[in-house]
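User: Can you help me understand a structure? I only have the sequence.
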Amino acid sequence: MARDLNKVILLGNLARDPELRYSVDKRAMARFAVAVNNSWKDRNGELQESVDFIPVVVWGPMAENCERYLKKGSRVLVEGRIQVRSYEAKDGSGKRYATDVVASAVSFQDSRRKDDSRGSFGDDEDFGDSVRKDRRFNSPEDDFPMDISEVGEEEDADIPF
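Assistant: Let's start by predicting it. Here is the structure, written out as tokens:
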């Protein structure tokens, strides 16, 4: 018996700054679009290029971190699943459909510099390393930095620093 699979991996740049909102139950949700370049050769052998703008939805603390550290042009690797939702049009003209990638992980691919207006992490330091040192997050090998206060007070957990 075959198993179903709905998995998406995107590597691209943010087309706009993340937009952060909160649900009625105060759960964070961020929306942004990832621009993914596509190139191919046409029948004449000429190189053609296009860009797809893929809408992405991120939930929870990961959404707040995306809003805090990402901006238009940031390079990201997004892992998630495709979700198709339907809704009634406001003008009453019928049902509409929207397709999004619901992210399960967002990895920041850029490094940060001191002159960056959204945060300062030191000269020529990798984003993950400086967040780990300055903001008390887990190692950059994780899919996404997590606040150490969420780990809990268990017996000498293997903390990577």
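Now, to help you interpret it: Helices lie at 61-69, 127-135. Residues 13 and 66 are 13 Å apart (CA to CA). Let me know which part you'd like to focus on.
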